[in-house]
Records
---
Amino acid sequence: MSSPTAADLLGYEGRLLTARSVEEIEFLLVNEPFSLVSYEQAFLWKPDVLGRPTLAAASGLAEVDANSPFALWFSRAAEFATGVVSQSPVRFLMAADFPTALNDGAEWIAHFTLVVLLKAPTGEALGGLWFGRSTPFAQEEVALVGWLGQQSEFVLWAWRREQLALKKRIAALAPLRWRAMSAKRKAMLIGLIVLVLVFPVRLSVLAPAEVAPLKPNPVTASIDGVVSRILIAPNQLVHMGTALVEMDDTATRNRLLVAQKTLDVARADLVRAAGKAFSEDASKSELQLLNSRVRERAAEVAYLIELLARLKLNAPADGIALFADADEWRGKPVQIGERIMTVANPADVALTIYVSPDDAIALDQGAQVKVYLNISPLASFDATVIQASYETGMSPEGHPAYIVKATLAEGETPPRLGLKGTAKIYAQRVPLIYYLLRKPLRTLRHALGI
């Protein structure tokens, strides 16, 4: 990469100064420097309430999960990098410099790493920038990373001051109004606040949901092989016994022809030996062996005939066939038991709800659910929880989630299978103050480690 010009540096600085939010600043700090310095990975961390490093942004990602395995490992790696003694504001680290305590994330450590600690003019820590790649950094790149750190310090400090100033202005208004109130009005206001905070409300959680069959009938591969073709269209209505999938039968049919020829030869040998047995004692001793061989070949032929019949998969019940695209399956190798499609009754539907572990509440059987589908966000329908997993599974997006099953309330019109939306699950009644502070208290517990 050629050295950046003054125009490149001024353009980068201008993009930082015109950012409209802290989130935009954090995204720019790990992605925009690539036009100035070549790197394979870039990260930004910020201190939490206890001053521990927390991953705030990563190059190539719109957002990061602070509870992911990498984020937890990176917090320890950033804490180590913060303690590295260096006369320069830029710390240069090689893979061998990291302690063995960080070996659980060895695949995430780049061969060469540049770390810049960010501080406010008052000396307060603002976090740090992390750049890694597989080739060494040149001296001019190290100097350029130091300049990037100075620009990052300024914009992060400026936005932090703006946020603190706004909070102070809002807080300054409260004491003036409070002092102007009489003692009676103060007591009434405090009493009203207490009544509101202890007012019982229904604890609830929002989670993504999709309409799924209540009793799905999976159509799975009967053998290891290749799908020849799908005989129906997606979402087509089928009846029990309808042919749905054809597997490629070339190899099985050839094996059957060979086995039938071998059986014919074995039978001919048995007939010839039986004819000689009247005059030759040696042929009598061969009869039992040849008879066993004929039975063995006949069993192999019967097995291949049965296997050939299983190469055409039929509908296990009446319903509609649920799968994405027939062309995607044509010529695709499959293993025995692999699901190709599902046949389900469109009138017998349920809801599959994916509740994040961070939002989990008491998901008791019989809990009330209200569902809002994406196709009609102003309309809703009621459902009831019938099952909740005791351990987390994976959502379609690849995130851990508790999987909850719910059935529609009596009288509700079944929505179309496959529709997605948002479900609101209700639990027991709790005081309003608990409802408001449940998540902040959980976050505080995680931060304090209690």
---
Amino acid sequence: MLLQESENLELKVSTSELKEAVISICAMLNKQQRGVLYFGVKNNGSVIGQAVSEKTLRDISRSIAEHLEPKVYPVISKIALAGRQCVKLEFSGQTTPYFAYGRAYIRVSDEDRRLSAKELENIILEKHRKNLSWDAEPQKKAKLSDLSVAKLKRFVALAGLSYKSPENSLEKLGLLAEKHLLNTAVLLFGKEPVKFFPNARLRCAMFGGKDSAVIVDRQEYSGDIFYLIAQAQDYILKNIHLGMRVQGLYREDVPEITPEAFREAIINAFCHRDYREYDAVSIAVFKDRVEIRSPGGLYGGLTIAQIKKESVSRRRNELLAEMFFRIRYVEKWGRGISLILAREPAARFKEIAGLFVSVFPRQHAARQIKPIQKTAQKIAQKTAQKIIAIIQRSNSVTTREIAAKLNLSVRTIAYALQELKKSGRLVRIGGDKGGYWKTLTKSKKEPN
């Protein structure tokens, strides 16, 4: 086998080139974070051999220890190539930048080039950025078996990629580091992400007034990030008013807050939150507004005025944002706030106690659909007793199943269920999964 110099392979004639060898090790570490070097081989690949003794190996080890920073501990071995004795060094390290004899070098093809001050500054900045990036950190406790292959396959299909194996797909997506799953992989595709991240949760609450004094309903969800986004959307839709309008021959439900607007805010909350904070993303539904709260304020020195006026963004979780972009959940142009305001001009944003909060007023929308809302109320009143009867027959029945039985929309039934809860005739025990309904009073039969 003829050896050939490359970005991670260097050939030296003998240990008389030991200083140059240390520089080559430094350059390869700064470029590839690993490499191999041989003594006793010409740079054209011809093996000429090298006298190797215990002292030879000690001198190599000592020179690397004294003249290379940060410290590297290579594997140094005496080997035979083409029947001649040679020395082989294998090394790796992640603590860039590395310095040889007080200077930094980088590998360019098969050459070692000294780094400029600007290039060195960029390496240092990139290192700190990666060190601060939670989403790109390896989750060394997680294994491939902790991921859902079905979730990964769905994502790969949505991203327009071909699926061969979990390892291959994760490699293509950049979600593996030295065979360790990155945090983003576990958050997106984990069977139970909460086992590794206690804050991989969503907290939701509905309040009876304009403050948090009276809690009408409270739910908590855990799961992968796509599941949590879906639950957040459903919770808001279930707990805001629904009007109706006629579209051609069909009746169409009209939420008082545009779903596209609060969906964008929910996605932003999960995409840009600070995952080092123990707190969870939360949804708070008040009588006059809906708030979507995300742990961690704006990132990179941005202000609320800037994100509203300039349409710029700085991403705290670049890798997670890249995954969302691949399946068109977000854009790369920082237009999320503009899209929200285009659909809900009265929406506002604030930072408080380390939270970024998106606020969607309900009152103006409720006034606009008031006549429509009365229609919804009439339907809810007419179907109330039918819903109670269905629940009494099967208290684990779902909203969708009730809607199918009564030939009404899911949103209309969700509104009716909410009205029954508000009136004290119905209560939900437990969450959407595994929970059940309980009727509190027997009502007089209402007209069909």
---
Amino acid sequence: MTGARARPDDGAPPPTSLPTAEVIPIPAATFRTLLLVLLAALVLAAPAAASSTQTTRFEAPRDLLDASTRSAALDEIQGFGVDSLRVVLLWRNVAPDAESAKKPDFNTTDPAGYAWGQYDALLTEAKARGMKVLLTVSGPVPRWATEDKRDNLTRPDPGEFAQFMTAVGRHFAARVESWSVWNEPNQPQFLRPQFDSRKRPVSPRIYRALYKAALKGLKAARVASPRVLLGETSPRGTGKVVAPLTFLRGALCLDARNRRQKGCGKLATAGVAHHAYTTRAGPRFVPSGPNDVTISVLRRLTTLLDRAGRAGAVPARLPLHLTEFGIQSTPDPIFGVSLQRQEEYRALSERIAYRNPRVRSFSQYLLRDDNPSTSGPVSSRYPGFESGLRTASGRAKPALDGFRLVLSAVRGKRTSSLWGLVRPAVRATAVQVEYRAGRQGAWRKLATVPTDADGYFLKTTRLVTGRQYRVTWTAPDGAALAGAATRPVK
């Protein structure tokens, strides 16, 4: 189903009618033990029962910002059952004389002063198709809008950015459902400096000024009640990258004890955006840095947000939006996993996000892989991302079928838990769960499993070593679809 999806409990299958049974007295001590076990189970199950929704977004700049591939890409994305896009608009790409240190003579708040190009065409077609757009306005910026005029990244001028956001709001407001400010502002390829000469983070305060400027610009454009997301942070810190929790504490003016510093007011925001990428170790990877946030440790981020809410730095109980995510595959020899493992990890990541009641959106980054370099050593030929559902040449990966019909298999001691989603479903339906022995065996029917109204399903089956699973589904138009082969993971 397109749009928001309600969360059924990802626990045991729905109860069935039970026959009348003889009532047998239970000793008091046994009853107390059973009661404690039941209460513990209810506590553990509580997050899954939270009243939350989760939407799917798609980001595919290579395909969507190219007029020759845009319509076909939108057809495919909508065919998956996705009706929401993330588009990153780079200020430098639309500004006049972007490489000049001297500001040109033009009205910076007038949309007519900018060359909107393919951004204009994309948002117009998305609007015509009834698709929602999250527009992330970001650097690099025109050199004339920076502090030292030597590059397109160092200390963008908040005043200039507010004027640019006024023009953006006036031009795109009718085609944008929500907004966010800057792409990965904790990364030096989008914002500089990240640290001062004493290795203290400075990018958080630069970002805070830019975020407030964006709000000012949208207000000047008379955008009614804009939904603006904060953050868009990358997942891990290094000597050159500020860790996401460190970055957010700085941007929200929180000290080491999460108290709001004097002189910093509450930031208005509709939620926090984050890019919870993991490593080739998979979604269960736990980063050693306590201020890093990958998909396995989203609680670190929501804990900080709750503390920030209690400190009055942001509204309470902010939702979390995972606005960029993907699993990289071969042929990247450094970050890529096998094609089958790519979809297994992607599906498990989506399952983890679904289980977290604070996550309101989950995104797929790339339809096609970025183009590789054709020269140099193999280790350096993949500077982009190989997280697409198709290869750079357009060949479908298993992840394409797996994204349409999601299946995540988790192995327990005696059972395997099969969770999934019929993403194109618009109402309750049913899937066939199939299995095979090993990689080449014939597929056999395991069960017919009903979904909820949003297309989610859950099936528990006995653990059989070596089995692989997939789901098949017949669409309303009669098309027979099959998902990717999936091996249970721990």
---
Amino acid sequence: MSQDTGTNTLSSLGEFGLVGKILSTIRESSVSIPGIEVEAGDDAAVINLTNASLVISVDMYVEGKHFRTDWSTAIEIGRRCAAASLSDVCAMGAVPVGALLAIGMPGSTASHWASEFISGFTEEVGLAGAVVLGGDVSESEQIVISVSALGTVESGSAVTRAGAQIGDLVGICGRSGMAAAGLRVLQRGLRSPRVLVDAFRVPKIDYLAGSRAAKHSATSMIDISDGLVADLQHIARDSQVCVELDTSGFDVPQELVSAAAAFGTDPMSWILAGGDDHALVATFPASVGVAQGFTTIGKITQGTENGVTKEGTVLINGEPYTESPGFRHFT
């Protein structure tokens, strides 16, 4: 993509000029993915599937709610949006194959910002082994981004939230609490510890973890976007079981401990309720153990005990979690 000067805006560039730049970036970084018959640039992409299921997910990101341009660069925001969306298809046990991007921006947006966003988005999609298949652009009062992520999984092998069985082990692959701590740092007007701020700006995702879990007999799976407890509640409710977590199984990085001490909080609160790390949490039969790259953090138990219903709940060290379990829109 050609360099833009800081004086160019989307109003001067125009819709077709922006689309042309986007297509140029996509094609420059495009890799060959089997089954893609028609790539970005036409009215729609075409994917030919044989003995596989297409997994599709869509997410929306709104300026001021999901990201701030004074906290993150355009490249970081692009990578973050791609990573957060692609993790959803990984959570189904699928391998990412593509992404569709729709973005609305004010006409006053610097064209170099849009170029850098697309570069970051395309870079992260490439790290997942996928390609940008196309999308749309529009003028809007603020930056609004919609990403549709696509993946493939062997027919009948998708892992849902509803399959956890009593006796299963609960395993996590990825970080938890780091992005939440980074958000707190940024909210205080700080920029360090850098490792925490970077965790908020760009998730670090193992894009093959979901596929490995599926092949390792995972019974249920979800990506942690709103908070570990909040998202595990989905598995507990949909599977009609109780999830019991053991905090002694968590790795608590020293940076997290130090930041929590500085802010007068418990690092475990970030680990249990903090979102945006997009780690994968899955359940596995105890007979096979957790998949490679996953760490055991709990187990699945029966829905009732001594006549008291626990079905659909998440317990921490045997006790109900009484704090806010994670992020919720409109609350």
